[in-house]
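Troubleshooting log. The previous structure file for this entry was overwritten by mistake, so regenerating from the original sequence record. Sequence copied from the archived sheet and checked twice against the printout by T.R.
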Amino acid sequence: MRAILEGVSPAATLVEALEPIRSDPTRAAVMLDIDGTLAPIVRHAADAHVPESTRSVLIEIAKRYRFVGCVSGRRATTARQIVAIGTITYIGNHGLELLRPGATVPEVDPDVAAWSARVREFSARVYTSEYQRLRVRSEDKDAIAAFHWRGAPDEEAAAAAVEEIAARAQEEGLVVHWGRKVLEVRPPIRIDKGLRIPALLRGSEISAAMYVGDDRTDLDVFRQLRLLVESGELTSGLCVAVRSEEAPPELTREADLEVDGTDGVRRLLEALM
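Regenerated output below.
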């Protein structure tokens, strides 16, 4: 089924789309991205927060549904701070970290942890005063180094400068990933938001799952849900795109349902109650 909704209406179409999830919450998983999905995109990443009206609904969702989790490009502990709900699961750093409910330290694959020192050394070496002058902001994400230019006085000049970091990273055998006004420098290993999804859902008696996201990296979860449906491990996988001016066109193409911004996400969650 394919539906593109203003907000999350018409109501009849929404009810139909959510029926596999709502019909048996004890066997359903609700998963969401954070930035641009639960939390509005802001000028400075450190200012991001989930509105209380959305957070209160998500708390009730977590009480009712078998599995509720957030999947983010941020570190898992930072993701939990932004959402401010300790009873759900957080997959952080594009799948590299897993923070279970109540845990204080995320689980990280040893192969990933081994790259942390090299990525940090690269970041410290290339992030010179010139980038600070351009208001490019660096972010230490352990095995990933991020360089943000959203809100820089001259975003075009800042983006051009960050291109130089990308070139140097590739010359040194690291991998680059471009996001929404951010460059991430990563180790040369598989990294994607869908990595931990199968292991979390298998063996949990979950038959239906929904994922909501707003960016290209969220396509990895869409595709993972569809693989689980094709293999018979799930009977239903609902992929929801969050519409925005910066959303990539392929997100809409691969989604089953589209909602309008973070307000649309809140109304979608309300419809699950």
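The chain is about 40% helix and 20% strand. Archived copy saved in two places this time.
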